[in-house]
Amino acid sequence: MPHRSTTGPGEAAHLQAAGARLVRHVHYLVLEPLDAVPAGVALPDGLTLRVGVEAADSLTRAAMAAYPPGHPDAGPFRSLGEAERELAALLGGGAAGPLVHDASATVADAMGAVVGAVIVTRLPAQTWGWPGGWWIAEMFVVANWQGRGLGRALMRHAIARCVAAGEERIGLAVTEGSRAERLYLRLGFRRRRTEFVLEV
């Protein structure tokens, strides 16, 4: 079915009342200017942050485990095959611009299994006002590791690399109701646009 986007809550409500289905209520956040590197975060014992992200079964399974039923973003990875395809497109530069390898990272446990990841790309200019630049295309932490500083460590890694590269800004999108937005706001990100995507 065709999709329609709007930035107006009233228009979104009117469309829903007429039978449209809300697919995603998303906020675009930007950290700008980039003038300081946030302090690092110590990871729990046994975990290691590794620079770069590569397609692997462990990454795919971690992405699926990060969005259990009831999570606002539970929809993106409905099956292992879909997750593999979406991550391959993201890492290959076909979904959100070319991968920024050094700013991307994973956190792995003592057995080498991925338990969290940040995937940074260079997103081209967008019609909503994004001028182009580094973009956090994915940031996830396996559900049973959430709340233990992994997301903070991954985000601070990405921001520090962005600052070191002389970039002016870094952005991301977060779904309404996601607890991750609290982390992003604490790190200095601010909402620039809110969008409602509806199936009509």
Characteristic key phrases:
alpha+beta; eight-stranded mixed β-sheet; 5 helices; single chain; 8 strands; Aminopeptidase; globular; 200 residues
Layout: helices, strands, pairs:
Elements: E1 3-6, H1 9-17, E2 21-31, E3 48-51, H2 57-65, H3 80-91, E4 105-108, E5 114-123, E6 133-141, H4 150-164, E7 170-175, H5 180-186, E8 190-199
Helix pairs in contact: 2-3
Brief account:
With 200 residues, this protein is an alpha+beta fold. The chain has helices at 9-17, 57-65, 80-91, 150-164, 180-186; strands at 3-6, 21-31, 48-51, 105-108, 114-123, 133-141, 170-175, 190-199.
Q: What does this molecule look like?
A:
- By secondary structure, the chain is of the alpha+beta class.
- It has one domain: Gcn5-related N-acetyltransferase (GNAT) (Aminopeptidase).
- Helix content is 26%, strand content 29%.
- It contains 5 helices and 8 strands; from the N terminus they run βαββααβββαβαβ.
- Strands 1-8-2-7-6-5-4-3 form an 8-stranded mixed beta sheet.
- Strand 4 and strand 5 form a beta hairpin.
- Helix 2 packs across helix 3.
- The mean pLDDT is 90.
